[in-house]
Design goal:
This protein is 47% helix and 16% strand. By secondary structure, it is α/β, with parallel strands linked by helices. It folds into 2 domains: 5-231, Type I PLP-dependent aspartate aminotransferase-like (Major domain) (Aspartate Aminotransferase, domain 2); 235-332, Aspartate Aminotransferase, domain 1. A hairpin with a 2-residue loop joins strand 4 and strand 5 (88-89). Helix 1 (5-15) crosses helix 9 (221-230) and helix 5 (123-136) packs parallel to helix 7 (158-166).
């Protein structure tokens, strides 16, 4: 019910590339139906273990987070995720909002490539966040869907060792949908990192009962693919090279888009964050402007303004920015008339 041992070994290697030696924590990996399944299981377990606890998520965040983590809106809290300046995340507002969290509450953190903003804390900011959670008795819950798309698989996992230094317990939900292209295989994991071995055993046992009463066993094929690659040094090295190529492609596309936005005078109008990583970015566009892009220019993005940079061909960037400029100008014209 909790996956093949070789898959569990592979996940541990990815999450803790420097090893677990010297840590007081005990680690249990549970294979799940993608990271969405991991988040859903985590949410169910939190409600079972601590019904009064809230889960705090960033605003903005991936639109499915709240639904996966709780069926009760009152169990979800929000903290503002916004820039201090175009190149720096504002930790002040985050920690101000989390002052309202109570000991035993959970804080959902995007381990890298924040969805949808693409703006991540620096390592020093992660340390500040870890210390804050420890002082306030808050439990870190990580969504780790984009490992390898920010810096490298190893560097993107560095923050877990940092949080282990400060927290008695942390939970990690990771996915192989993006970094191995295993969307349809639904290959993910829920990893429990607890100092209290007895409590870990209780969580593990309860989660297996939840699995048994829902999907019973996780899909095998994707897990075998992931473990086949990660547990073999040569295949792992080849995969790391492919990840680097994907990461560099995302960086090239983003750099080309930013350069075009800058030359068009649209950069500050449309982007709050200038330092970004990963697959997504958010454009500051109103829903009517987004509708105009769809109807008049054949450009489709979410109502939130989120776009997937991987779906934007570099040769289409000038035309894309031209359409953005026209929509912004039309919006400004209407504002002046009003």
């Amino acid at each position: 019910m909790d996956g093949a041992p070789e898959f569990q070994q592979a996940v541990r290697r990815l999450l803790f590339p420097s090893g677990e030696e010297g840590s007081e924590h005990h680690v249990q990996v549970i294979q799940t139906v993608g990271s969405s399944g991991a988040l859903h299981l985590a949410g169910r377990m939190i409600q079972h273990d601590a019904p009064a606890a809230r889960v705090w998520i960033s605003s903005p965040t991936w639109e499915n987070h709240a639904a996966l983590l709780s069926s009760r809106p009152e169990q979800i809290g929000y903290y503002r995720y916004q820039p201090a300046d175009p190149d720096q995340l504002c930790m002040t507002t985050i920690l101000e909002d989390l002052q309202a969290a109570r000991p035993g509450d959970y804080v959902l953190l995007h381990a890298c490539c924040h969805n949808p903003t693409g703006m991540d804390p620096t390592l020093s900011q992660w340390r500040e966040w870890a210390e804050f959670c420890a002082e306030r008795g808050l439990i870190p819950l990580f969504d780790f869907a984009y490992q390898g798309f920010a810096q490298s698989a190893e560097q993107d996992a560095e923050l877990f060792a940092l949080f282990r230094e400060h927290s008695d317990r942390l939970i990690i939900c990771n996915s192989f949908s993006k970094n191995m292209g295993l969307y349809n295989e639904r290959t993910g994991a829920l990893t429990l990192v607890f100092k209290d071995a007895d409590r870990l055993a209780v969580w593990h046992s309860t989660l297996k009962r939840m699995i048994r009463s829902t999907y019973s066993t996780p899909p095998a094929h994707g897990a075998y693919i992931a473990s086949h690659i990660i547990n073999d040094p040569h295949r792992y090295s080849c995969w790391q090279q492919e990840l680097k190529e994907m990461r560099c492609d995302l960086q090239r596309r983003r750099a080309a888009l930013f350069a075009e936005l800058e030359s068009s005078g649209l950069m500050d109008t449309l982007l709050s964050y200038h330092r970004q990583q990963g697959m997504f970015l958010c454009l500051q566009l109103s829903p009517p402007s987004i509708e105009v892009l769809r109807e008049q220019h054949g450009i489709y993005l979410l109502d939130t303004g989120r776009i997937c940079i991987a779906s934007l061909p570099q040769e289409a960037i000038p035309a894309f920015c031209l359409a953005l400029g026209q929509v912004v100008e039309d919006t400004n014209t209407l504002s002046r008339k009003a």
